[in-house]
Amino acid sequence: MTRSADRVWTVPNAISVARLLLVPVFAWLIVAGHDLAALAVLAVAGFSDWLDGVIARRFDQSSRLGAMLDPAADRLYILVTLVLLAWRDVVPWWLVVVLVGRDVLLACFLPALARRGYGPLPVHFVGKAGTFALLYAFPLLLLAQWDGVVGTVAHVAGWAFAWWGIGLYWVSGVLYVRQAAGLLRAAEAPRP
Q1: How many CB atoms are closer than 10 A to CB 63?
Q2: Which sign, positive or negative, has the C-alpha torsion 174, 177, 179, 181?
Q3: Burial per residue of 159-183, b for 16 or more beta-carbon CB atoms within 10 angstroms, e otherwise
Q4: What is the pLDDT of residues 133-159, one digit of tens each?
Q5: CB–CB of 26/73 below 8 Å?
Q6: Would you list the domain boundaries of the chain?
Q7: What's the CA gap between 151 and 144, in Å, rounded?
Q8: How does pLDDT run across 20-66, given as a tens digit for each residue?
C-alpha cells in the first residue's frame, strides 16, 4: 500500500467513526420504541456507509484503518439491528442465527491467517452487495410493523431484500472461505 494508506485522520474514517458512535443511539431508540427516529438513524448510517466509500475513492483517502472500520461498522449495525429486531419480534431468531453464523464461520479463519502474516481479507463486491441488501431490509422490516398499505409494502420489500441479502451474504462467505483456504494452502506449501 502507498503511504497515503497509512493515514488515520481522513474524512472517510471520521464518517465511519461517527457511524459507529450512532450504534448505541440506534439501540436505545429501538429498545425505547422510537421507531421513526431509529429509522432515521439507520438511513443516516446507510447513507454514510455509501458516502465514506465515495469520498475515499474520489479523493484518494483510502486507508488501512478505513478498510477495517467500514466493514466493522457494517457488521456491528447488522448484529445490533438483528438482535434488537428479533428481541422485538420483528424478525425471527433463525435469521439472527443464519447471519451471525456466517460471520462466526469466517472469524474462525482469522487466527490462522494472522499467524501467517495476512490481515483481514479484502471486502468482496458480493459481500458488499449482501450487506447493502440487508441494510435496506432492516428498516423496511421495522417499517412493516406499521398498519396499512405502507406496512404491507414495506413487509414485502423488506423480506425481498432480506432473502437477497441472506443469499449474497452466504455466497460471499463461501468466496471468503475459498480465498482464505487458498492463502493458507499457499503459506503451507514448501518453498523451492
Answers
A1: 20
A2: negative
A3: eebbebbbebbbebbeebbebbeeb
A4: 998 899 999 999 999 999 999 999 999
A5: no
A6: 1-89, 92-192
A7: 4
A8: 999 999 999 999 999 999 999 988 888 888 888 888 888 888 877 77
